[in-house]
Design goal:
34% of the residues lie in helices and 32% in strands. It is built from 8 helices and 14 strands. It is of the alpha/beta class. The strands form 3 sheets. It has a 7-stranded mixed beta sheet with strand order 10-9-8-11-12-14-13, with helices on both faces. A 4-stranded antiparallel beta sheet has the order 2-3-1-4. It has 2 domains: 3-70, Alpha-Beta Plaits, CATH 3.30.70.260; 117-274, Vaccinia Virus protein VP39 (Rossmann fold). It has helices at 13-23, 44-61, 75-82, 123-133, 151-158, 171-183, 214-227, 244-253, and strands spanning 3-9, 30-34, 37-43, 66-70, 86-88, 92-95, 107-110, 141-145, 163-168, 190-194, 205-211, 228-240, 256-264, 267-274.
Length: 275
């Protein structure tokens, strides 16, 4: 599915923050913020539903905004030309198949993303990985919601989880997840599932990993928590720092208690326990 880039020129970083806060309630999936511009990305079909609202807001600001179609990126070719392995806390290295395995004894995760999200380079994947590495997954059953490349599932599997449902709504992500699972020899642990939150109805999990985005988290939090055992934990990301309290308020309504918050480059990952 193609994405649309919204480009908004800004006089300074403070104004970029203001614009981002104003449109963060809409179904934009990610933002790129610099001192003199803000870029926001949204699926083409979702923009159709909120285009009028966006245009009306930006008209009042007096800026000259622009929408540009973005073709789906082939991450495979991007990696081969630009990618460098990512080391996280000295304990885990996420690399491509054409790089050598780490020599320091760190957990070795091999990912070929193609057109899926989850390489460790984005702050949210880095934060999720950092949080995962601090947990004991021995013999636990879990859910990786919005699994992308499957990288988070793979790390949890290598930390001892014995059953993980890796769910993603995009067909190419589910296929790429299968390939990466096989590449990391965890096929017996991780089950790729093509679908949305409705695909986990009736399931029960010890833990949930959800690196998606603010709006999906707010919309589906109740569905996730319904599947989580009492005493289980959920780690979420895909959210900006200024969304932390909104996410926490939603989580509290679902009997979740915040245990830890991780921050990097304006992004956040939050850990909760089910009471």
């Amino acid at each position: 599915m193609n994405y649309i880039e919204l480009y908004i020129p800004t006089p300074n970083s403070v104004q970029s923050e203001i614009y981002m806060a104003q449109i963060s309630d809409l179904p934009f999936e990610s933002f790129e913020q610099e001192e003199f511009f803000l870029k926001a990305y949204i699926k083409e079909n979702l923009l159709e539903e909120c285009r009028k609202e966006v245009d009306e807001f930006l008209y009042t600001t007096g800026v000259q905004w622009k929408f540009t179609p973005i073709e789906t990126i082939n991450w495979n070719s991007q990696w081969e030309s630009n990618f460098q392995p990512v080391e996280i806390e000295g304990a885990c290295v996420i690399r491509a198949p054409f790089h050598e395995a780490p020599a320091n004894g760190a957990m070795d995760i091999v990912i070929m993303p193609k057109m899926s999200f989850g390489t460790g380079h984005h702050a949210t994947t880095f934060l999720m990985t950092k949080a995962i590495l601090e947990h004991d997954f021995a013999n636990l059953k879990g859910l990786d919601m919005g699994s992308g490349t499957g990288v988070l599932s793979i790390i949890a599997a290598k930390l001892g989880a014995n059953n993980i449902d890796a769910v993603d709504i995009d067909e190419w992500a589910a296929e790429n997840c299968k390939e990466n699972i096989a590449m990391n020899s965890v096929e017996e642990v991780i089950i790729p599932i093509l679908g949305d939150a409705s695909s986990i109805d009736g399931c029960t999990y010890d833990f949930i990993l959800a690196n998606i985005n603010r709006n999906i988290l707010l919309n589906d939090m109740d569905k996730y928590v319904k599947t989580l055992k009492s005493g289980g934990f959920i780690i979420v990301s895909g959210i900006l720092e200024h969304d932390i309290e909104t996410i926490c308020e939603c989580a509290q309504k679902e009997s979740l208690k915040r245990s830890k918050t991780h921050l990097k480059d304006g992004w956040a990952a939050i850990e909760f326990n089910k009471l």
